[in-house]
Amino acid sequence: MNLATMLKARAEEGRPIRVGLIGAGKFGAMFLAQARLTPGMHILGISDLNPERARETCRRVGWSEEQYSAGNFDEARRTGATFITDSNDALIKADGLDVLIEATGNPEVGIRHCLDAIENGRHVIMVNVEADVVAGPLLAHKARQAGLVYSLAYGDQPAIICEHIDWARACGFTVVSAGKGTRYHPSFHASTPDTVWQNFGLSPELAARAGNNPKMFNSFIDGTKSSIEMTAVCNASGLTPQPNGLGFPPASCYDLAEICKPKADGGTLSHEGTTEVVSSLNRDMTPVEHHLQIGTYVVIKAEDEYVRHCIEEYRFFPDSSFKYSAMYRPAHLIGLELGISIASIGLRGEPTGSPTGFRSDVVATAKRDLKPGEVLDGEGGYCVWGKQMPATESLRIGGLPLGLAQNVKLKTAKRGGEPVCWSDVEIDHDNAAVRIRREMEAMFSSKTKSQAA
Fold it and tell me: Which end of the chain is more exposed for a tag (fewer CB within 10 A), N or C?
């Protein structure tokens, strides 16, 4: 409750938390807009492939030129200004850096940056959730071994959901389910960058004016991003995926407890203690009233009659039996809220969500019939979408992680809806991301199988 007070004290002492940002895209821009207003926090450096774009981002979000005019990291540390560079390596190694924010969105690059940061003694905030679901459990393990913090990014939905889960458990409640909302229809699994705007409900003109990337937005609409984010939640919280992945039931904010409970009690879930994403569209494509499209939620269980009565009296969004009830947050502000992660790490040494095991995975799944020789184009593309799957099942079938399904050639034909496996593609085994993923599979496979037994 006192992070702001602690940050203010650090500012008064002249000991700000020194932060480095890799990637000045949308998330980075939103973070920078608030970082300049947060006492006790100093953006030591920003690294981007296009430094001038990073400077333009700073100008656009309200920074004065003096704030990003440092000529090198020594000057930045001395004056409190920010140095902008195109060298990720130089930023990671900069003297005085406390926390590195990885916001590139590229899983292979993100894994490499994370490993370099750990080697150089830096805490890591992994905005790049794509990298987290490929190798996050191992990266977090390596960080803990080095006495460092590896954290999900507050403001993104996985960290906020982890906060909901922590709140519930700290109050003594059983967590029945947790998740978020999205715009979903079964037909959207076949969505491509060519059809994304009609599926999203946007005109191409409006999307272009906003500068929206069709491939990135398609990963939200085809089910991939939901699978990625719920996998991050499972691996950080101890919840486990449903055997067939996400069901995407339509649900309003007020129906969460009725729908996101086990089938045995009249809900839609396979078991207690899982993740689910609810849709803002009914199956006939009509909108759900009071939907949760950009929000998050947790469903809890009352263990006795007294608590059920309390749930009824305080109208805590219950189901019809008052055995289950929900708490939800209607929206999130992604990068504008990232300061919570930085403060939590820098002041308390605590992550805002961090993988503790390999419970869930995201496996590349064919969007259509695919032929040998086709080159997969990764997240949000024309070939595959990412399906959430129990880690035990992914290991059993040798599922290809969605994050490594970029620029790899198929060796075997796949029918639409079939998972793509390691054996189905030509893999560069010298690729650093492939190596660390295989290391993670080897490390966690015995633990994962024993947990499932």
Answer: N
- Residue showing tokens 């895209």: 25
pTM: 0.95
Tell whether 198 is covered by a domain.
no
Q: Same domain for 172 and 318? A: yes
Whether residues 70 and 134 fall in one domain? yes
- Residue 73 sits in a domain whose CATH number is 3.40.50.720
> Do 311 and 445 fall within a single domain?
no
What pLDDT is recorded for position 1?
Answer: 67
Alpha-carbon distances, residue 431 vs 105, 115, 160, 420 (angstroms): 18, 14, 32, 19
| DSSP code at position 43 | E
For residues 421 and 399, give the distance between their C-alpha atoms in angstroms, rounded to a whole number: 4
**Residue 76 and residue 82 in contact, taking contact as beta carbons nearer than 8 Å:** yes
End-to-end CA, the chain: 40
Q: Could you tell me which residues come within 8 angstroms of residue 423 by beta carbon, excluding any fewer than 6 positions away? A: 398, 411, 412
H or E stretch at 10: helix 3-12
CB distance 366 to 420 below 8 Å: yes
Residue 207 confidence (pLDDT) above 60: yes
Domain check: are 320 and 367 in the same one? no
208, part of any domain:
no
pLDDT digits (tens, 9 = 90+) for 358-413: 999 999 999 999 999 999 999 999 999 999 999 999 999 999 999 999 999 999 99
Reading the block at residue 242, the tokens are 């449903």
Q: What is the mean pLDDT of the chain?
A: 95
Confidence category of residue 31, pLDDT binned at 50, 70, 90: very high
Q: Which helix (H) or strand (E) holds 129?
A: helix 129-145
CA-closest candidate to residue 132, choices 259, 25, 231, 206:
231
Is there a domain that residue 252 lies in?
yes
